[in-house]
Amino acid sequence: MGLDYVDPLTKRTRQRSATVADYEEGEKLLARWLLLTGEQHADEVGSMTVAGLAMRWLDEVDPRIARTAVSDHRFTEDAVLLDTWRGYESEIATHILPGFGRTALSAADDIAVGAYLATLAASKSRRTPIGATTAPPLSASMILKVYRRLHQIFTYGVKRKLIVGHPMIGMKPPKAMRRSEQHVAERDPAERAIEWEDLELMLAWLHATYPEHPAYRTRVRTGGETGLRQAEACGLTWDRVDLRRRTIRVLQQLVYVEHEHGCAGKWAGRKVSPCTLAARAASGNPKLAPIAAYRCPYRRDGGWYIDTDTKSHQRRTVPISKGLAADLAELRHARTPLPDADAKRRRLARRASRYAVVNADLVFTAQRGGHISKSLDNTLIHRAFDGAEIEADGRNVHSLRHTAATTMIRAGIPLPEIQVILGHSSLQMLERYYSGVTARTATADSVSAFVDVERRERMLDASPHGMVLPDGN
Ligand SMILES: [Zn+2]
Fold first, then answer.
1. Ligand 1 center to residue 117 CA distance, Å?
2. Which of the four, 37, 238, 340, 402, has the lowest number of CB atoms within 10 Å?
3. pTM for the structure as a whole
């Protein structure tokens, strides 16, 4: 769909077009365009509000809008990826518009912005965890995001000559966002661990909620039992799982790789790629903005990859319990095999030390196919916290690793063994983290059901020194 309009700022005729998925999305986008380009907006530069500026900026970085400017009026902002854009939109709608949106641009000076950010830093999250009576403070990362977004919006305002000066020059992010002050970081790791009884409730909830997709439950169980890191669990492939010996070899992880320029030739500085130089020569405009890597016509695709390069992390072999092995066996049985030709192509791709996740034979997959992304993984665990009515405050996916650590300590497994299973670089770190956790003798404790006694004995058998050794190095 497309729209011709007169830019209220430059009075030039412009054209915009976008590809939308459905009618509803098209209607929404059209309504926004009309709002932005409509007559009620044309005379409003003087009385524009922060909300108006934020909406204009959002529109400018919207990747769905192709900018075919009729005039030589150039855009200096780069469109962002759609998912990023949706994040911006949500931050603006949730935090900037309600608290600061109605402020007129003429009144949005450094004092007003400072006051708004101070209020923001002192505000509460919109989410109250189950079991808690009050909402936790707004997270430090969200405060920083809002600060950055506001900064970008004002920078855009200056560029478009909608405001005279940038009100945030020299302004530091609000104080609450310092990492050391986050209440999450202050919590004791053992306290952040999920008790095994609670984990069982979460697994039961996942089982009831996703009966057709056992991968989600098994992924969470694997985390709680083996302490695999998120990137290790999400990047686990079947060739690393030995169900007969009941071990998982941990030697790879899911990583995100940035897009790269694939254009050949010489660069003029760090940002000015050969394709930018070619575009400048072709257009006769030597000031054309540098082309971002993801827009390079010869781009090397970034995205999610399986990284088997062991330099960045250590290899280890982790024993798994009978129960988990049974869950994994069920998962493997239920997976749909690939067509032969496809399987061969993927097998070849997997020979590289880093290969695209689409070629991976993943253990844990998303319900709609493909890998479990970090955000889906985070969402799942939080849904399970809510569903099982476990306090989520201060807990996240990493809590599963703490669960594995504390459970093994309580079951009486020696620290050096636990260190190897978890892949901790030093024993000191483990000792410091879990100094308060003491071994309980495996009586009728639920722990024994989790780390079965047999598992420990087998681990002791596995090496002459009574330890599981990392393979290779
Ligand atoms: Zn390029």
1. 38
2. 340
3. 0.56
